[in-house]
Specification:
It is a single chain. This protein is mainly α and 193 residues long. The chain has a three-stranded mixed beta sheet with strand order 2-1-3, with no helix packed on it. The chain has a domain of 38 residues. It is 40% helix and 5% strand.
């Protein structure tokens, strides 16, 4: 019998396995197959968990001796992950000129079906926010001042990424942590594998 496994799926299984299973997989397939699966600052897609981010950065995993609120712990973990996703050579710096663009993960709070089921007035309310209201994401805070269709990064970029692709990955791969941080009573959708 012949079994074929895509290398990317094998690496994902390896990245999520415990040490004993990793040893078994290395003996079965060889260590070289899994070298790309190890967390590294050179490829942000190898950062799949908070623990991966800590390994890549060479930092200890956070232990909470003070019983902090869950949303604060989630924020601390997201900050660590964000630094790991930036990679080895990227050093974000505030830009007083406003010439650099940074990307922040953006989340839909309604499913497509929920939007389709809204009456025209409800659906229009989602799209009618004025320029003076919206969601402000900044240096350590998030405030929703109006409706969901307006956003501005007013202060900083601690949880931002330098590309739209990385921001999307950051939002999707770590959706459970984002949900814990934002704590807005919504259900968690897709996560990248």
């Amino acid at each position: 019998m012949k079994v074929e496994i895509e290398e990317s799926k094998l690496q994902t299984a390896y990245a999520n396995a415990c040490d004993g299973v990793k040893d078994f997989m290395e003996s079965l397939f060889g260590k070289k197959v899994f070298e790309a699966a190890k967390p590294t600052l050179d490829d942000y897609k190898t950062i799949r968990t908070y623990e991966d981010a800590c390994k890549a950065l060479g930092e200890p995993i956070f232990e909470d001796p003070n019983n902090l609120p869950n949303h604060i712990i989630a924020l601390m973990k997201l900050e660590t992950i964000s630094r790991a996703l930036w990679g080895r050579n990227f050093q974000p710096k505030p830009d007083g000129e406003g010439s650099k663009v940074y990307w922040y993960p953006w989340f839909a709070l309604w499913t497509k079906k929920e939007v389709e089921d809204m009456n025209p007035e409800q659906r229009g309310a989602l799209l009618s926010a004025g320029a003076d209201v919206g969601a402000s994401a900044g240096f350590g805070y998030l405030s929703a001042d109006g409706r969901s269709s307006d956003a501005g990064a007013d202060v900083g970029f601690r949880l931002c990424q330098e590309t739209e692709e990385k921001a999307k990955y950051f939002g999707q791969q770590f959706i459970e942590l984002w949900a814990e941080y934002l704590k807005f009573n919504f259900t968690v959708g897709n996560r990248l594998k």
